[in-house]
Specification:
about 600 residues, alpha+beta, four-stranded antiparallel sheet, rod-shaped
Length: about 600
């Protein structure tokens, strides 16, 4: 018990064979009490006991962190700044055919530049990602390069000319590339910048040319359409030359005038009809060949023949009056030469037909008598048809009665005039029907004509608009070809990077120091929590339930002193070796020590000047 008390007083572990037999529950309660009642001195004792482990652990972590900071390959970045300049000619005078926003256009150019073919060409040209290409697929290599390419927009507030309000607009952009080799980084960044500039010129020129070609084709199509509509309008006018809408008023006037002319003509015809009736009545009372019928043989012959027809209807041909009248008619016929043998021919025709009927009863159709009778009958019938009319023969004689001749002349004139008026009336009626047909068909013609005319006017208006745009597109194309439009200007070319952007070695060293301290302390804390030794008066008291009687001081022996010196030499050697290793790594893998020393002095002088 006394040995345990002395060990507890001196801070050393108590011999296990001198401990009293206590239960596990009592020991756990003693540990809890000991943890709760520890003071700063006990924590310092724990640090002294485990300072070697803390220093070694912290040193290992710190050395590893410094090694990581020094061995981590540096990454360099080369930037190129491209300014987006507005077109030199004012937009109010010449409009550009490229109207997309700069941000949208830059993104489009980026997609065209960073294609698989372009990136592979750059990779092969500058021998990039040699290690990665041995263990990665081509898609992974391309994706790796795309991640190393950065495109950042530089925006500013500008006044929108349409709304007059400030709005953010892209005025420039920065194109950068990151790699481990600074020379290759600069070359690749320059190559990408050149691709961006050339692609912008190419895309703007192509778009201006495509716009001009499209408008030219559209103008040609509209020109062809206008020619077709002009032809259709001309053919339509030819087909409906008198029914066009602009002739409607003229057709109406012609219709009214023709109607009036027809009314006047009908009036004249009625007047002439009355005059003809009057003249015919006057002529019927006059003899054309003299005033005395007895002295006019032709008139006497005509009268006797009329009287003969009346007697024949009353008496037989053998009646004395009929025979006397017949002899007188024969004499007048011989006198005037107006002989009418029609009756004899009719009698002869009747006789021949009677003989033919009797012969047909006896003979066939081919008998000579029947053929002869048929020929004679045909000859008599032909003679009857060709015999002149007696009335016509009498009419051929020139009248010699002056009064009759005068009236006959007036009658002939009236008849000719009425024939002319009827002809005129017929023509006027045809004209009236034509004008009515024109006016009736005018609404339908007008509808079709207005449709063609509307299509023609719309096509003409569209052609003028497209032609105007075509001229503007041609000027815009010339603007792009002469590089007077909006353009990308390289204001800050890619430079050779002098300092890497990663890793942040001071930050890594600082974090390594923090992790080293935390790791050492944590390792000591874990060791203390796992250590079951009872230390100090409080630990003995908490474990045994009684306080120790006395405290025996610890006396260091020569062996203990040798161990302590060897331990200090080991720790000092380890620390010095770690520092030397860090300096060597920094000298060979980061920057030479003399350069680092001058940098430190320069920063120190800058800080001193600031104060």
């Amino acid at each position: 018990m006394e040995d345990a008390h002395r060990a507890a007083v001196n801070g050393g572990p108590c011999p296990p064979y001198n401990y009293p037999q206590v239960s596990t529950m009592a020991y756990a309660q003693a540990e809890i009490f000991q943890e709760e009642t520890r003071d700063l001195g006990e924590y310092l004792d724990a640090f002294r006991r485990r300072r070697t482990a803390i220093i070694i652990t912290a040193l290992v972590i710190f050395v590893l962190g410094i090694a990581a900071a020094l061995l981590w390959p540096p990454t360099y970045r080369s930037n190129a700044t491209i300014l987006i300049e507005e077109q030199e000619v004012p937009a109010d005078l010449v409009r550009s055919t490229v109207t997309s926003y700069a941000t949208q256009r830059i993104q489009t150019i980026s997609q065209r530049v960073m294609t698989r073919a372009n990136l592979f060409e750059i990779i092969d040209k500058y021998e990039l990602y040699e290690d990665e290409r041995q263990r990665e697929t081509s898609e992974e290599t391309i994706e790796h390069m795309r991640e190393d390419i950065s495109l950042d927009m530089l925006s500013a507030d500008v006044i929108d000319p349409r709304s007059g309000r400030p709005m953010p607009a892209t005025i420039a952009f920065t194109l950068s590339f990151s790699s481990e080799d600074p020379a290759k980084t600069q070359k690749v960044a320059s190559e990408l910048t050149s691709l961006f500039l050339s692609e912008n010129l190419k895309s703007r020129t192509e778009k201006a040319e495509e716009t001009y070609v499209f408008l030219s084709e559209e103008a040609q199509r509209l020109n062809t359409r206008i020619a077709e509509l002009e032809t259709a309008l001309a053919e339509f006018k030819e087909q409906h030359v008198y029914s066009l809408p602009e002739l409607k008023e003229l057709n109406t006037q012609l219709l009214d005038r023709t109607d009036r002319e027809i009314s006047d003509t009908n009036t004249q015809i009625r007047t002439l009809d009355d005059r003809i009736i009057y003249l015919q009545s006057q002529l019927s009372t006059l003899e054309p060949y003299g005033d005395d019928v007895i002295m006019n043989p032709a008139a006497r012959l005509k009268a006797l023949r009329t009287q003969y027809i009346g007697l024949v209807t009353k008496y037989s041909p053998e009646h004395p009056d009929v025979l006397n009248l017949k002899r007188e008619i024969r004499g007048l016929e011989l006198e005037t030469g107006l002989i009418d043998d029609t009756e004899e021919k009719l009698e002869q025709l009747d006789t021949l037909r009677t003989e033919l009927a009797a012969a047909k009863k006896k003979y066939s159709e081919n008998h000579p008598d029947i053929i002869r009778l048929n020929k004679e009958i045909a000859a008599v019938e032909t003679s009857l048809r060709e015999s002149p009319d007696l009335g016509s023969a009498i009419a051929k004689r020139t009248p010699d009665n002056p009064a009759y001749v005068t009236l006959q002349s007036q009658l002939d004139s009236s008849l000719a005039e009425i024939r002319a008026l009827k002809t005129k009336k017929s023509e006027l009626e045809d004209k009236l029907a034509e004008y009515e047909r024109r006016l009736t068909g005018t609404p339908q013609v007008e509808r079709e004509y207005r449709g063609l005319l509307r299509d023609y006017e719309n096509a003409t208006l569209k052609y003028r608009e497209i032609h105007s745009k075509q001229m503007e597109a041609q000027v815009g194309q010339q603007l792009e070809q002469e590089r007077k439009g909006e353009r990308f200007t390289l204001i800050d070319p890619a430079a050779l990077p002098e300092e890497p952007i990663s890793p942040n070695r001071p930050a890594i060293v600082f974090l390594s120091l923090v992790f080293a301290i935390g790791g050492g302390v944590g390792f000591a804390a874990i060791g203390e929590s796992l250590d079951k030794s009872v230390r100090g008066i409080k630990g003995v008291t908490a474990t045994l339930g009684v306080a120790p009687l006395a405290m025996i001081p610890f006396r260091e022996t020569a062996e203990d002193k040798g161990k302590r010196i060897r331990h200090k030499v080991l720790v000092t050697s380890t620390v010095v070796g770690g520092i030397v290793a860090v300096l060597l790594l920094a000298h060979f893998f980061w920057t030479p020590l003399d350069v680092l020393w001058f940098k430190v002095l320069r920063k120190a002088s800058i800080v001193a000047d600031g104060f």
